[in-house]
Specification:
The chain contains 8 helices and 13 strands. By secondary structure, the chain is α+β, with helices and mostly antiparallel strands. The chain has a domain of about 190 residues: Glutamine Phosphoribosylpyrophosphate, subunit 1, domain 1 (4-Layer Sandwich). The strands form 2 sheets. A 7-stranded antiparallel β-sheet has the order 3-2-4-1-10-9-11. A 6-stranded antiparallel β-sheet has the order 5-6-7-8-12-13. A hairpin with a 5-residue loop joins β12 and β13. The radius of gyration is 18 Å and the shape is globular. Pfam families: GATase_4.
């Protein structure tokens, strides 16, 4: 599987989050504690927004994150208030740049940990549901990217939670029709440049790990000696596949079958349930 991190809040150098913590994402690429694989070396990617544009920049490569000089160069010189980082462990599709996360379409950015079980058996059925206007923009061969384009097809721009729920419902319905009992395993992060949504769900009810950070003001009260907490705003939050360190009280497990939204003015956590699409599909 994979490991990922989503950061939103005070603009910081990417390296402060990707490299510096005790159990950073780079450390997890070699020493994951909660993933299916200990090593996640089948590529990496970072994506970030700046104040000058609503379209995120993306850097992706097929090599391991732990020794990539381009990643180090970018991370120590790019500052952002909303960025994603992802390290990949392939579930069967090719190790190639177009299969590395995060994926981008317009202002939207997407990354995934998990898999569609039996993907090779009903991939064609899912592909044929993608909006024909979107289909030419699919670059790779992963289930993760196809999930993104299904969500775009089902209205991600207007209703992200609903679009992801309809995407999940289609995968489960199609998988069951092909005798796959538990078709979907996912933790997903999606952003539009202002908000971040994070989803944790699996058909079996045993989803991959996912955590969110405690509010900064509460952490400052618990750990006034921690310099990083003095440098960031109360709005700063992280969502991670596994905690970046052992700071007491810093991390909270995202509940099974739920999603959260991090947004200006207040975050929210909701139950998540797949939905069947009840409107017309693209021609």
């Amino acid at each position: 599987m994979c490991r990922w991190i989503a950061y939103t809040g005070t603009p910081v150098f990417l390296s402060r989050v990707l490299f510096e913590p005790e159990h950073s994402l780079i450390d997890q690429s070699l020493h994951s504690r909660m993933g299916v694989e200990t090593t996640n070396g089948d590529g990496f990617g970072v994506g970030w927004y700046t104040q000058d544009t609503t379209t995120p920049a993306v850097l992706r490569d097929v090599g391991p994150a732990w020794n990539n000089r381009n990643l180090q160069e970018v991370a120590h010189h790019v500052r952002s208030g909303l960025f994603f980082g992802h390290i990949r462990a392939s579930t069967g599709t090719a190790v190639q740049q177009t299969n590395c996360h995060p994926f981008r379409h317009g202002r939207w950015m997407w990354m995934h940990n998990g898999m569609i079980s039996g993907f090779h058996r009903f991939r064609r059925d899912l592909v044929l549901t993608v909006d024909p206007a979107l289909y030419p923009d699919i670059e790779g061969s992963t289930d993760s990217e196809l999930m993104f384009f299904l969500a775009l097809t089902f209205g991600l721009a207007e209703d992200p939670p609903g679009a992801v729920a309809r995407m999940a419902g289609l995968i489960e319905k199609t998988g069951h029709a092909h005798d796959v009992p538990y078709p979907l395993q996912m933790t997903i992060a999606v952003a539009d440049g202002e908000r971040v949504w994070a989803f944790r769900y699996s058909s079996e009810g045993r989803s991959r790990s996912l955590y969110y950070s405690t509010k900064v003001d509460a952490l400052r009260a618990l750990h006034p000696e921690t310099s990083f907490l003095r440098d960031i705003s109360d709005e700063t939050r992280l969502v991670v596949s596994e905690p970046l360190g052992a700071l007491p009280g810093a991390w909270n497990e995202v509940p099974e079958s739920s999603y959260g939204v991090i947004q200006p003015g207040g975050d929210a956590l909701h139950a998540f349930r797949p939905q069947l699409h009840d409107g017309p599909l693209p021609a």
